[in-house]
Design a protein that fits this description.
single chain; 276 residues; mainly beta; Immunoglobulin-like; 5-stranded mixed sheet; 2 helices; globular; Arrestin C-terminal-like domain-containing protein
């Protein structure tokens, strides 16, 4: 029997602001410093490729140890699981992007904010897949200036969807000429609403296409209608090549008689936003 797995976040979790707090003290033997407090804040937990994530880190350093740097990292966690002939699991931890927010002096207090743009990536929520689990993690690491002390870390999962949350959208840029290599709507001119996947339910303006509707008995809306009413000024997404580029898809059994392009790069919907 196949082992079915997958992580799921409720609608409330990805539509509401995220706040993660962590604290530690430094010390040797009987000596102990004041606490180092780090708070990670995100406006929401759900985003789409093309959006900028405003990452805010509030630091209160009550210790005598300066903090050399505070680093924010967006990571892609892939878990592959099989059960035949025996159960086996493989994990990949891939860094998508990172920003360094700077440091802070001993007994200092500072609030640091940096934007992190999401590149073309596959959406989260692979609950219907029994062999692959995909998760995105935002991680913050505070590194002390002294090599004798350990880092302070905190992290939170975020969801990547295919349609922005209606409850959280940055200003939208005016339509621009599509960059080379991007397709408007879908491959070969196929409209985005005909590309498959779950449509957002009209009764839940925060839903994204790759997430199930809140009411499974509700009628399915007509293609295009929800996005037209919820996002009247949203330019159509362009389908951009994955940030990882093309990969060789030649199988071990292929030979000189196998024809076709052996280099393949998936494309994902990317939205164009204007950031003030």
């Amino acid at each position: 029997m196949w082992y079915k797995f997958g992580s799921s976040l409720s609608f409330k979790e990805y539509k509401d602001p995220i706040k993660k707090e962590v604290s530690k003290t430094f010390g040797f033997c009987c000596w102990k410093s004041g606490p180092l407090n780090v708070v990670l804040s995100l406006p929401v937990g759900g985003y789409v490729p093309g959006q900028d994530i405003p990452v805010t880190v509030d630091i209160e350093n009550g210790s005598d140890i300066p903090i050399r740097e505070v680093k924010c990292t967006l990571r892609k966690l892939l878990t592959f699981t099989v059960t035949r002939p025996s159960k086996s699991t493989k994990k990949d931890d891939i860094v998508i992007g990172e920003v360094v927010l700077g440091g802070i002096d001993a007994h200092g207090t500072q609030s640091l904010t940096q934007l992190m743009k999401i590149p073309p990536l596959p959406p989260s929520n692979l609950n219907n897949c029994s062999v692959i689990d995909l998760e995105y993690i935002m991680k913050v690491t505070a590194k002390p200036a002294s090599k004798w002390h350990f880092n302070l870390q905190t992290k939170t999962p975020i969801i990547l969807g295919t349609v922005p949350l209606a409850s959280y959208q940055p200003p939208i840029a005016p339509p621009q000429e599509k960059p080379a290599g991007e397709i408007n709507g879908g491959p070969d001119g196929v409209p985005a609403e005909n590309m498959g996947g779950v449509q957002p339910h009209a009764g839940d303006p925060g839903a994204a296409w790759n997430l199930p509707p809140t009411d499974p008995n509700a009628p399915t809306p007509q293609p295009g209608a929800p996005t037209q009413s919820l996002y009247p000024d949203l330019p159509p997404a362009t389908f951009s090549e994955s940030m990882f580029g093309p990969k060789n898809i030649k199988d071990a059994g292929d030979n000189q008689f196998t024809h076709g392009d052996m280099e393949y790069a998936p494309r994902y919907p990317v939205f164009n936003f204007e950031t003030n």
